[in-house]
UniProtKB/TrEMBL annotation, chains A, B:
Residues in Plastocyanin-like domain copies: 38-151, 164-330, 439-554
Species the sequence originates in: Helianthus annuus (Common sunflower)
Name of a matching Pfam family: Cu-oxidase
Keywords, alphabetical: Copper, Disulfide bond, Glycoprotein, Metal-binding, Oxidoreductase, Repeat, Secreted, Signal
GO cellular component, one term: extracellular region
Single GO MF annotation: oxidoreductase activity
Reaction(s) this enzyme catalyzes, per UniProt: 4 L-ascorbate + O2 = 4 monodehydro-L-ascorbate radical + 2 H2O
Parts forming coiled coils: none
Reported cofactor(s): Cu cation
Compartments it resides in: Secreted
Location (main, coarse): secreted
Family statement: Belongs to the multicopper oxidase family.
Protein known as: L-ascorbate oxidase
Amino acid sequence: MALLRLTPLCLLVHLCCFVLFVSSVLGAKARHFEWEIEYMYGAPDCLENVVMGINGQFPGPTIKARAGDTVVVHLTNKLHTEGVVIHWHGIRQLGTPWADGTASISQCAINPGETFVYRFKVDKAGTYFYHGHYGMQRSAGLYGLLIVDVEEGKKELFQYDGEFNLLLSDWWHKGVHEQEVDLSANPMRWIGEPQSLLINGRGQYNCSLAAAHNSKGSGLPGCKFRGNEGCAPNILHVMPNKTYRLRVASTTALASLNLAIGNHKMLMVEADGNYLEPFWVNDFDIYSGESYSVVFRTDQNPANNYWISVGVRGRQPRTPQALAILHYQTTTASKLPTLAPPETPLWNDYARSKSFSNKIRALSGSPTPPRINHRRIFLLNTQNRIDGYTKWAINNVSLTLPPTPYLGAIKHGFSNAFDQKSPPDTYLNTYDIMKPPSNPNSTYGNGVYMLKFNTTIDVILQNANALNANVSEIHPWHLHGHDFWVLGYGEGKFSKKDIGKFNLKNPPLRNTAVIFPYGWTALRFVTDNPGVWAFHCHIEPHLHMGMGVVFAEGVHLVGNIPNEALSCGLTGKMLMSKPHN
Amino acid sequence: MALLRLTPLCLLVHLCCFVLFVSSVLGAKARHFEWEIEYMYGAPDCLENVVMGINGQFPGPTIKARAGDTVVVHLTNKLHTEGVVIHWHGIRQLGTPWADGTASISQCAINPGETFVYRFKVDKAGTYFYHGHYGMQRSAGLYGLLIVDVEEGKKELFQYDGEFNLLLSDWWHKGVHEQEVDLSANPMRWIGEPQSLLINGRGQYNCSLAAAHNSKGSGLPGCKFRGNEGCAPNILHVMPNKTYRLRVASTTALASLNLAIGNHKMLMVEADGNYLEPFWVNDFDIYSGESYSVVFRTDQNPANNYWISVGVRGRQPRTPQALAILHYQTTTASKLPTLAPPETPLWNDYARSKSFSNKIRALSGSPTPPRINHRRIFLLNTQNRIDGYTKWAINNVSLTLPPTPYLGAIKHGFSNAFDQKSPPDTYLNTYDIMKPPSNPNSTYGNGVYMLKFNTTIDVILQNANALNANVSEIHPWHLHGHDFWVLGYGEGKFSKKDIGKFNLKNPPLRNTAVIFPYGWTALRFVTDNPGVWAFHCHIEPHLHMGMGVVFAEGVHLVGNIPNEALSCGLTGKMLMSKPHN
């Protein structure tokens, strides 16, 4: 293409060197942060609302570190009555499973007024983020970016002149406490589509930055800004003919997104902290829980500015695009782009989505999966009812988290802390995934998949029809404590013959992978990280409605769990039952 | 009066016997309750809203017991991310200070998913209630009645043919989480007057049951009910020419109230679980935290029904009266009263309010206060600013509760759990209570008034001007763990000469007493109940903004505090620090 003056080759100058660095102790730092979490007023989409802030900021501060560093976050809960935790999404917590920040799984929620110290190593460069993992506090705005650069003295595999970070989220005007009541009600009240999409916590409700381009007509009036509003658009200031890295992460509660930069092609280079075999795109899909790095060259007319557009895919969009501005510093920042914002591809063009997902391959030289798996777990995703309540279930079990976190419960042998019966490894082979469940009743459960340490596990995520006919939704599944290889995506019900089609050559390593409507996704990982790890749909209301499972591996190898992570439930009782004065 | 065919004498047939019973073990029961707390949808004032419910009920279930019984409530927290406690308002918790249900004071909040067992003796007959005491959960609807009858086989001091209970509250459409953010914001955002007053959790927003009597014009249209709505009015079904006991308790977040029954005089007989020297009223004031029993005779035209009206006093009312119907069963319940509802006295007729308060005397034969006090504590109530935040302060200290509850902290000697310096016993004697504070800056604090065990304490609550000129508000102060004698009310600044005017002959025993604008109120109590006890303004937002103090007495005499009450903060750390596997 004429627009493209850049080849992958000239960007990826270091490709020939091996992509995995051994973390060097030299130069590694402990990076300390003191954070206080509280509710505050903000106006994420220009409409005033209560948001969850960290040190008065929404989104929370961006953590910047280098591979090998130790991040130490002293987190103080300044909420009035609520506990809180923070999950470091994409960080595998090697050796520190109690720092994973998942309430009921890795630790007890931090009580109001108390401080918990998260201390963990960021062993691998990449684009990560953090977020609340208790109730629906992520939806309330408890999130921020965690950027890990390559080690001091090492060079990134690709060169760039500047870097921008975009954290994508979606926003509702209704508070999360009420959303929780809605989702738990009988009949369930669906929270609906978000009012706004946010880029770095900024969106514009009921107005459009691109009103001048409204030929297709959002019908929204233009936004008026003095420029200092917290909801004013993000502006990425660039110089012409330079190369920039754009780090993009999605912490949406619901929306699957697509991002494009007007006139600029992007080279996909990183996903979830792992290098990709680079490929060019005009736009890319990003599901909740995913992150990408792209590089692009500012090779367009430097007298213009360009829109960066983010729109909804996978659900009928009722939310306008979020927009940011790529500003060539050769012109004025306030000059609106002359071209209309890039259109988001049709929401239900799943063929296009799948085509993109299938292009994602690990960079040559990346670790490849073991050839053989030891166990294969099939996880059927269904929408169900329990006593009239609408739930999501996996193999007919809807996850309800217990008051005693699993990590401590298993480590200390509390057999009454959760269902001791393992949830099923598969589902009835007569199940018709194309129809609403013939028996929609499922059960609550909180059993654990006990995985043998240092074995290779395949998970086949199987999508199905929801309760209503002709509905099957997208679910991005996120695994804690691990990256997994995405061996493949398929249509319909997984069958043995699909195993032969697995990509064992260059499957991408990810921590999040989507299942498409009526389709399956095959994942492989090695149980080499002692701990208890959530594996769940990253759509916040779906998790709230039970859409997750729990994996445990090598818990006997876990070191001393800090008491602070054990202070609730049965582990708290145990620790306190020692005689005292 | 012609309407009155009843004398105190004929009601109080047992007045001659001594009013205090020694609790008999014979017949005493343990009364067990299993409660689950969660948010749910309700429509307290016909407008749908989220309320805090117990076992799916709002208000919570009424506990009925007899003096000497042990109440055992197994309280399970089914909230998603919030802790919870329940305070048993008016129950002194003799020997069980850890069951007082005040977060940060008597116990750690109960974590989501966990169960705490409240076990306490209701030693004294009376009209009590219970409510949340964490954040603003009381405002969210976490409350209910606790009715203690005289012991089995004993007779009440007055006779009646039937009994009704009215729990009064006020209701906002804005959720409490947002209210908390409002009150904590800089600048503070006042929550305003309640949208509705509720009687037993029922009110009517934007309509009036008494629309037909709108001569003075609320302007509201009539309410339309099929009759089964949760917000349909309370109807008290009575037979003519009988005597009824009406138990009334107020758990309002803000409103001071006045209650009247059309055409019916009432005889005041009980306040806060203590007998009164009976006196007749046409209406009575009731402040948040107070309870009363009145008796009345159904001696009016039995072909009519009569309004029970509850209206706002002490603040300019912006909330319509709450109404209930006294239904003579000789007519139909749906027949609306022919007379207009009783008017609530002028909100700022404080002379009337004071006159009522001054009529309240202990029933002859009640315990009288010790003649001499050992310590006198002056508590100046002021509105202040701290770093621009609007707060309420006592002797210039605004209470911020610590993460380690005081009871455990003091019992186990944690000197770093709270400010070790005692807050001041008095304030500058040059302070001008008639003007806004000349230095409005106060400090945060969480020190404790350490009271010598078995001594007599006088507290002089001193009201003052708030931040704005010519504003002094009503504050009903509630003491945990005790009843106190109300020795007197006075105008202006308390001075030594006022001591001589104390009523030591028949002061009423209460657990809540109001201070009037620019006035003082003198209380006396004996520190005979080992524990740590909150003493605070019962207006929920005022407490939230720091309007309280903490008293500790004889904590060395407190028995073993259950671990479940100690599982947070420093006591939790201590208990967990014992070696374990």
